[in-house]
Amino acid sequence: MRRIHGAGVVVAVAAGLAILAPAANAQVGTGPWTPESPGYSEQERGCGQVSGLTFQLTCSTASGDQRAERRYTTYTGGTHQFEGSFKITSMTGSRISLKQTFRDGSNAGPYFMLAVEKGGRLYAVEGGATLGSGATVGTSVRVNTINQVGSSHKVYLNGSLKQTISSASGSYYDKFGSYRTASGAGPITVQWSGVKFWRK
């Protein structure tokens, strides 16, 4: 299922859901920051289910495309910050991607993927570096990513800088939800909140 949301186009919006409510200042990084409200589409594939800001993989299938995500609009150039908090409410699976920064255009594909293992370890799928721990059922974790296109991509967990990698020039977009990695499987249910975007 694919539902498109954006300026002038809104389909299947949950009643009363405050999707974006930008604050005056971002949680991390040197400003000044300008709030923005990019459009998005919802992606449900395999056993993935999206309900508002709750994202589920309902099966333990360890193959195929299993995802429940929001995919935001593509940007090119500039500096862009994403912020959101996730709380896993149930998980018997492992190695599920929760937040992604993807390349678009001629170099489309995974660039940064934050994933969780059963037990609460948070890691970068590309390279496998451990970024945090304690992302256990019922625990809220705030995620910020700052992509300065052509310079650097930074990842913060609960306000603490955990990774800096180089960022090539080109086009990117943000995604979050639950997505089975190549070595992972569900089930998992994760709730996101406080989703905001800024640019400078």
The oligomeric state is single chain
The CATH topology annotation reads as: Jelly Rolls
Tell me the number of structural domains.
Answer: 1
Q: Name the helix and strand elements from N-terminus to C-terminus, one letter apiece.
A: EEEEEEEEEEEEEEEEEE
Helical residue percent band:
under 10%
What is the count of DSSP helices, taking H or I runs of 4+ residues? 0
SSE inventory with pairings:
Blueprint: E1 2-6, E2 9-10, E3 34-36, E4 40-45, E5 48-51, E6 54-57, E7 67-72, E8 75-76, E9 79-91, E10 94-104, E11 109-116, E12 122-124, E13 130-132, E14 140-148, E15 152-157, E16 160-166, E17 171-185, E18 188-199
Antiparallel strand pairs: 1-2, 1-4, 3-18, 4-7, 5-6, 6-18, 7-17, 8-17, 9-14, 9-18, 10-11, 10-17, 11-12, 12-13, 14-15, 15-16
Protein model, in words:
This is LamG domain-containing protein. It comes from Amycolatopsis eburnea. Residues 1-26 form the signal peptide. Keywords: Signal. The chain has 200 residues and is mostly beta strands. It has a single domain (2-12, 32-199), classed as Jelly Rolls. The chain contains no helices and 18 strands. It has strands spanning 2-6, 9-10, 34-36, 40-45, 48-51, 54-57, 67-72, 75-76, 79-91, 94-104, 109-116, 122-124, 130-132, 140-148, 152-157, 160-166, 171-185, 188-199. Strand 14 and strand 15 form a beta hairpin. Residues 7-24 have low confidence and may be disordered.
